[in-house]
Amino acid sequence: MTVRSRLTEVSRGQARARRDGLRPLPPLVLDASSAVELSRLWRTRRTDALQRRRSVVAAYLVASGSMGMISAYQSGILPRLPELPLPGFDAPKVDSSAEAYQLMGMPDGVLALVSNAVTMALTVAGGEQPPRWLRALAAAKACVDAAYATKLTVDQATKHRAACSWCLLATAATFSALPQALRAAR
């Protein structure tokens, strides 16, 4: 059974009885041979479609690294957040603001990490040729991420009157992923 056929079977929630008499695998679990094939595909296969998806994941890893620093500061792990020594840059002012803790009553850096993880998971799901709906969902999520990053960037300028270099790095990474995410959806 190919990875694609197993993923199709899993996505439909179907699990056939195995010939060896063992119970079928639960939904969303691949058999070992399909998992080995999928591992090889992601690590070694070089197609334009996979390269686009890899570039989306790479950009989101950069954004996640930046959000990790912010999360460490917002949760008290880091006593201070380093910032560029340039006029107008003040990451601590932006990332310790009330707005940074209002959504769900937690640091927004942590929420950004969760959001980035969801986008990456949608991007890599489905094997080499994920179904069209999954590709469209991943692209839509990347669009939502870019729109929210835009809102937060505008807030830096209008509400906080300061820029956060870590936030701007994450925004730039999110926007760099957007064209590839949209191409992958086609």
- Give helix and strand order, one letter per element, not per position: HHHHHHHH
Mean pLDDT: 89
Summing up helix and strand content along with how strands pair, one would put the structural category as mainly alpha
CATH architectural name of the largest domain: Up-down Bundle
Helix content: 55-70%
CATH class of the largest domain: Mainly Alpha
Shape, principal axes of CA atoms: elongated
The major β-sheet equals: none
CATH topology of the largest domain: de novo design (two linked rop proteins)
Note the gap between the termini: 26 Å
Number of strands: 0
The radius of gyration computed from the alpha-carbon positions, rounded to a whole number of angstroms, is 20 Å
Low-confidence stretches: 10-18
So, the CATH homologous superfamily of the largest domain? VKOR domain
Query: Percent of residues in beta strands?
Result: under 5%
Count of DSSP helices?
8
